[in-house]
Amino acid sequence: MERKLKDYATLVLKGMGMGAADVVPGVSGGTIAFIVGIYDELINSIKSINVKNLKLLFTGKIMEFWKGINGNFLISIILGVGISIFSLAKVITWLLTDHPILVWAFFFGLVLASTWFVSKDIKEWNWKTILSFIIGVGIAYYITVATPAETPTNYLFIFLCGAIAICAMILPGISGSFILVLLGKYFYIMEAVKTFDIVILLVFGSGAFIGITSFSRVLSYALKNFRNITLSVLTGFMLGSLNKVWPWKRVVEFYTDSHGVAKPLIEENILPNQYVVEAVVLMVVGFLLVYFLEKLSSKKQIEA
């Protein structure tokens, strides 16, 4: 696919959207990739980092390798994700701490709309797709209500956390950040990002690289051969994850960070009790943003 400079700038912005979502424990970068219309290309590009193309790299055929893995696309997305994670980590965590209802309301609208638009890509609803959808809802809902665990901080476990979390990050509806919460390592990794702990980040990143290059093959195969069923499961994931992004919550358990400050760890949903009008407005804004992006993406495909 031939792209101009402005197209790559747009890809960087889309990557930034994915990175911003990945920082939030409840919203998936995969959901954003679906919303902005790059999901299939992202999965196929990651899948292309294989033995065949790596041989090109190690034999000095760098341009062939770069073309084989759709390098310009991947580096644009990676750049955007990196910019967001390292620049927005403090901002997002501050917003979630100081303005949680408004932030979650916006994301609720985003996820709700993306659930609808992804479901529209399912060409046929039958017992297989309906069952797949129900399974997806059930898995996502269970993950959102699971209790975070106390886990070790050795390098092997950090490596495994990276491999597991990255798989969730490219699944719409399943938040990699929330998987880290369940593994007891979300705040640990966020602290490493904010302090730029290079050792922890390299170990975590190595696990993420192994995880994403392996899992992308499974996803690519499923989308190619069982697209309706796969999309049904992913739609279910999104719908089930709405439980996690419900704006109104009550904290039932706290944790103490490295500075001795108590922060929420486990929360439960409650009925709307404050900022109701503002939250509803932000839900609508989030929904309309996805609607606008979907229409824009459809218009570009028609023009192409």
From TrEMBL:
<dbReference type="Pfam" id="PF04018">
    <property type="entry name" value="VCA0040-like"/>
</dbReference>
<feature type="transmembrane region" description="Helical">
    <location>
        <begin position="130"/>
        <end position="149"/>
    </location>
</feature>
<dbReference type="InterPro" id="IPR007163">
    <property type="entry name" value="VCA0040-like"/>
</dbReference>
<protein>
    <submittedName>
        <fullName>DUF368 domain-containing protein</fullName>
    </submittedName>
</protein>
<feature type="transmembrane region" description="Helical">
    <location>
        <begin position="155"/>
        <end position="183"/>
    </location>
</feature>
<keyword id="KW-0812">Transmembrane</keyword>
<feature type="transmembrane region" description="Helical">
    <location>
        <begin position="195"/>
        <end position="215"/>
    </location>
</feature>
<feature type="transmembrane region" description="Helical">
    <location>
        <begin position="101"/>
        <end position="118"/>
    </location>
</feature>
<keyword id="KW-0472">Membrane</keyword>
<feature type="transmembrane region" description="Helical">
    <location>
        <begin position="73"/>
        <end position="95"/>
    </location>
</feature>
<feature type="transmembrane region" description="Helical">
    <location>
        <begin position="275"/>
        <end position="293"/>
    </location>
</feature>
<keyword id="KW-1133">Transmembrane helix</keyword>
